[in-house]
Structure to design on (294 residues):
């Protein structure tokens, strides 16, 4: 019986994927686990590296290779392709450009959830590395504790790092209606916390690397995209409010208020940037003695 299924999405992560795979196969556990790695038609040698590791660790690594990029087709890879393949009682996540730093991460998290049968999700602290340097930590608490769902809702999508999540497969594979509105890490954190909160371990056991070429964050850093993401989150939270019959309305209201404030600030920044750009162009043509028309 496989205890944990690790879900790893990778696309053109050749400089990083070996470090991720090493951190998976070095896990010290008292149970069997599998690593399902989805290679979304990489073009930089990631596929060759993955084939090598799959050959070396056939009992752990289960590769899924694509001949064409499925993300660009609008497919939710983890849900539509990998969910039916996962055999574990628990599900963990780590993308191919991130990695784990503790060889007992899976063991610690499984034991934590087994000690809390009332809970469905466990997370931990994670380091955020940008340009090769420590940037910050995702660490919502300085001690081990069970975090109530209200804090998870208010924390937003960046409450914890994706590669810190371990949840019961029964939760991941049975999305609540509000996750049908938005199937992402944020909605998973919330659903996983509804029954008994989020079990949190203060040990820092992973590294998250945003803004790398080809990463999700590098494709979604446009300010207009951020506003659209907030709108999607708010739609999911409205569905959550209906699903829970208003039980968490205050936390949802506070989260949405923060989104609105951030979006207003973003729009002001965009307008200011456009105004400055226009004035610089006008100045350029004025100095050249040419007439500028907008």
């Amino acid at each position: 019986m496989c205890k944990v299924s690790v879900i790893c999405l990778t696309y053109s992560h050749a400089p990083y994927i070996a470090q991720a795979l090493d951190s998976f196969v070095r896990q010290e556990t008292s149970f069997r686990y599998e690593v399902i790695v989805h290679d979304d038609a990489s073009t930089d040698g990631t596929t060759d590296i993955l084939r090598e590791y799959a050959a070396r660790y056939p009992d752990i690594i289960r590769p899924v290779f694509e001949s064409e990029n499925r993300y660009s087709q609008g497919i939710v890879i983890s849900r539509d392709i990998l969910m039916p393949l996962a055999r574990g009682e628990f599900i963990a996540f780590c993308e191919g450009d991130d990695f784990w730093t503790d060889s007992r991460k899976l063991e610690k998290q499984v034991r934590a959830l087994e000690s809390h049968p009332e809970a469905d999700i466990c997370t931990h602290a994670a380091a955020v590395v940008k340009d090769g340097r420590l940037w910050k930590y995702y660490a919502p608490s300085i001690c081990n504790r069970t975090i109530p769902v209200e804090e998870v809702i208010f924390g937003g999508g960046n409450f914890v790092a994706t590669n810190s999540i371990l949840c019961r497969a029964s939760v991941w594979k049975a999305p609540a209606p509000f996750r049908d509105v938005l199937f992402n890490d944020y909605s998973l954190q919330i659903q996983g916390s509804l029954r008994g909160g989020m079990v949190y371990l203060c040990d820092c056991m992973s590294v998250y690397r945003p803004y790398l070429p080809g990463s999700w964050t590098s494709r979604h850093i446009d300010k207009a995209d951020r506003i659209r993401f907030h709108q999607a989150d708010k739609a999911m939270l409205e569905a959550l409010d209906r699903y829970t019959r208003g039980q968490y309305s205050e936390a949802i209201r506070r989260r949405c208020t923060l989104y609105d404030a951030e979006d207003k600030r973003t729009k002001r920044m965009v307008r200011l940037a456009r105004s400055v750009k226009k004035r610089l162009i006008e100045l350029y043509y004025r100095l050249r003695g040419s007439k500028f028309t907008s």
